[in-house]
Write a structure and sequence with these properties.
- With about 325 residues, the protein is an alpha/beta fold.
- It has ten helices and ten strands.
- The chain has two domains: about 130 residues, ATPase, nucleotide binding domain (Nucleotidyltransferase, domain 5), CATH 3.30.420.40; about 170 residues, Nucleotidyltransferase, domain 5 (2-Layer Sandwich).
- A hairpin with a 5-residue loop joins strand 1 and strand 2.
């Protein structure tokens, strides 16, 4: 089945074509330069830029693959969660295509797409523990099978990627913050500043990054906010703190849930120290460690097309009346 996938939950617009689980091409229109001056994503700008790039992105994708619209057999798009304006632009475009071409449509949950992005180039081994870490999410799932997910823990405040963005903005490192912090942290001392391990009494598998963010602010202000060496040390220490918090979250979960694989996805999954730490945890337990290629860690149409094709091949399409939702936990999405 040839399926078009469209992802527009935040600032990047991405489309992909998948045929029988094989990715033909993925094309992304990035908005990084549009949002960099503001140190974060501006929702109004994001949705308006999506309107400008929808048609050119689709045309480029078709050109790359040598396909035409009438060869597409199914269409999938992200409908939740995310910036509602951005979601609406992509979702309505995809539903309009499905209506005009008389093709089945599937709305895809953004986090479910991320979970399966790791298997665009790998094979799942159930059950697995899936950690989704990005600018909007830091969620840990027990995955028994495709479509069978149990949320084990999550951040109770800032997501890991959001925390990276805020600390990078504080120190004038630019946007997006994660790559900027990782780059400057290579020249810093990860033990220069101490960040306490977050403790959430409600659930030992939950985590928190607001306290670490506040501590970083105090370290920055307390040292007079000057010098590249100071920036590097704070960045390295903060990064080490985030990696430690996520590693503890995963270690505690693996003690209770005997997974066959440890999977990390989302934009923060590009972070090399985090990958190394989680790979070591998996190796200690003799289980597989799986992470997407960096190009599939950030938001992409390929993951949406992959999930969409699997549902559509099961005959599980969505009504064209399905609407965008800014917030919607995975496992509580609309079932059709």
């Amino acid at each position: 089945m040839l399926v078009l996938g469209l992802e527009s939950s935040c600032d990047d617009l991405s489309m992909a074509l998948i045929h029988e689980g094989h990715l033909l091409a993925n094309t992304t229109a990035s908005q990084t330069l549009d949002h960099a001056p503001f140190g974060g994503v501006v929702p109004e700008i994001a949705s308006r830029r999506h309107l400008d790039t929808l048609q050119p992105t689709l045309e480029l994708l078709l050109q790359k693959t040598g396909k035409n619209l009438h060869e597409i057999e199914g269409i999938a798009a992200t409908y939740a969660p995310g910036l509602v304006g951005s979601l609406l632009v992509g979702l309505n475009f995809a539903k309009s295509l499905a209506f005009a071409l008389d093709r089945p449509f599937r709305g895809v949950h953004h986090i479910e797409g991320h979970l399966w992005s790791a298997f665009l180039e790998n094979q799942p081994n159930f059950p697995f523990l899936g950690l989704v870490v990005s600018g909007g999410h830091s969620h840990l799932y027990w995955v028994r099978d495709f479509g069978d997910y149990q949320l084990l823990g999550h951040t109770v405040d800032d997501a890991a990627g959001e925390a990276f963005d805020k600390i990078a903005k504080l120190m004038g490192l630019g946007f997006p913050g994660g790559p900027a912090i990782e780059k400057i942290a290579r020249d810093g001392d990860a033990k220069a500043f101490s960040f306490a391990l977050p403790l959430v009494k409600a659930n030992p598998l939950h985590t928190s990054f607001s306290g670490m963010k506040t501590a970083a602010l105090e370290f920055w202000q307390g040292k007079g906010a000057s010098g590249e060496g100071l920036k590097a040390d704070i960045a390295a220490s903060f990064q080490a703190g985030v990696v430690r918090a996520l590693s503890v979250m995963v270690t505690r979960a693996l003690a209770k849930f005997p997974a066959r694989q440890l999977v990390v996805t989302g934009g923060v999954a590009c972070n090399a120290p985090l990958r190394e730490a989680l790979a070591a945890i998996a190796a200690e337990r003799s289980i597989d460690f799986v992470a997407p290629a960096p190009r599939y860690c950030t938001d992409n149409g390929a993951m949406i097309a992959y999930v969409g094709e699997r549902y559509l091949k099961q005959g599980a399409s969505s009504p064209l009346g399905i609407n965008a939702k800014a917030r919607l936990p995975l496992g509580e999405e609309i079932r059709v």
